[in-house]
Amino acid sequence: MSAVADPGLPAKTGRALLIAQALKAFRANKLSSVGVVIFLTVVVLALLAPIIAPHDPLEQNILHRMEDPSAEFWLGTDSYGRDILSRLLYGARISLFIGVAAIGSAMLIGSTIGLYAGYRGGKVDAVIMQAMDVLLAFPALILGLVIVAMLGPSIQNLIIAISLTAIPPFARIARAPTIVVKERDFVEACRALGFNDTRIMLLHVLPNILSEILVMGSLWLATAIRVEASLSFIGLGVKPPTATWGGMIREGFEKILDTPWLSVFPGLAILLVVFSLNLIGDGLRDVIDPKTRTD
Amino acid sequence: MARRPANGQAPAQFALDVRGLTTSFYVGGKWFPAVRDVSFALKRHETLALVGESGCGKSMTAMSIMGLVPKDAGRVKAEAILFEGQDLARASEAKMREVRGDGISMVFQEPMTSLNPVLTIGFQVSEALRHHRGLSRRDAAARALHILDQVKIPSAKSRFNDYPHQFSGGMRQRVMIAMALACQPKILLADEPTTALDVTIQAQILELLRELKRETGMAMIFITHNLGVVAELADRVAVMYAGQIVEIAEVAELFARPTHPYTEALLRSIPRSDRDTAELYTIPGQVPPITRMPPGCKFADRCAYRLDRCQAEEQQLAPLAKAPAHAVRCWRRTEETQPEMVVVDA
Predict the structure, then answer these.
(1) Which residue ranges in chain B fall short of pLDDT 70?
(2) Which CATH class name applies to A29-56+76-294?
(3) CA-to-CA distance for B143 and A4, rounded, in angstroms?
(4) Within chain A, which residues score under 70 in pLDDT?
(5) Chain A 27-56, residues with CB within 8 Å of chain B CB atoms
């Protein structure tokens, strides 16, 4: 074969093209676009909390306890006279951070474990997955409870606890399709091209199972926010007076008959984020499948 | 066949020298050979066809050479598999990975499933170059595009970022060939590359392979059960039956003087447009299962020329007295000076 001058490559290659196609596919799914808009709005509001919050979230005001929503306090005040809106905005920072950090690490660790176990198969797989099953045998909330009780309540420990409970499901969700994909002809073709196992796992198997993992991730992010809320609700979450959505629901719960909005607003916030993440998860599937992406 | 020095390098005219290759599988608590004592030498620039019916061990021979037989189920033993001064039978897995896709490449039967559905064909053709040659993304892409042109993908440039599902079967097989040839291998193992394709596309792919072989000067082992393809493409033919080579000869010689009874029967089973026969010849009986191989000749049960000796004792692959390059594994035929009948006129 003679060397031929560079015949010139298509204008868009690799990453740029992938992103362009992905955005197009995502936009085609109207509902998931709505999900993205809601989620990004919440993230931006959370990031801008110090600028846009009308009050200090920790500032107590004995004269304005348990007030109804008004021009001064848009969403009312709690039993210490703190502004609910400001607490919601600051709480979003913590709740979202815990969720993203916990699920991000669980996704990374869990799918690595599942991918490796599924790809290797045999005894390695059996040992790893049985260990995962032991973890899986505990309900997520109980396991999180035990871990936080052992380590003590703090943001960092909450992240560790939630992440540990989420690792086994990610390992399972990554392992099952890996077992199917590794038997497919193109993996054999990769071996015939001299690729090593790491390359085959990361470049050839992983992209084929990514949609399952990411969809699962968006759903578990919602779960993580719920678990954080639950743990805070029973007093094992972030310590007061720091605002978190779960913590706010718990505080409000004691007075739910007199002033329901104390719990209703943070509850609505969680509902909104969980809802948006579910919509996003739906759209992600379309983005990752090249068939829908290139149509 | 004439023995070559056992531990030396393969003589320079050989691209690949396989000696005494036996691949066994573990079935019901025992090891059974699926490929038994296969020896052949592939000359440089030569196309050797491995012919035989399904399950005769031809694909497994290729997989064994590539070191791709799954370790938990199969066991590969060989006196030597010499490629460029290395003995692949004794090479480490890391060494084999260097050879695969670079020195020796393989094209598979199923183009519809042998490409990764979530990666662009441009990426997949570039990948071997980046892996084996350490080329940058850009350089590899430029080279890959050139190869896609070479395998005659129409408007390769605009299709570079397309996914496999956007290609037809024939086009995907071209992509597979491009992937296999990316690193300019010395040897291409083509495992029934046209079997899954339409007849017209088959012809195109065969023409392409012939052309690429001429351009690159690589040697090729072409695995098929289609004798028509063999006649068209091969320089030499090895006929396999029940894991053994039963006959090996130059292609013209084999078609002119098929000497092993199995080869003879195979050639009689081809439908021919120039013969007016009502019924197609079929070989009676079936291949003995791997777990119940008879001690003597494996074809004896189905053979019309069977001697008592055939079922007791196994003949070696022995050259014919009149044609030393033509070797046959048959008691009767190696003893006779001339085959009894000529089935197909040259």
Answers:
(1) 1-12, 275-278, 334-346
(2) mainly alpha
(3) 9
(4) 1-15, 71, 73, 292-295
(5) none
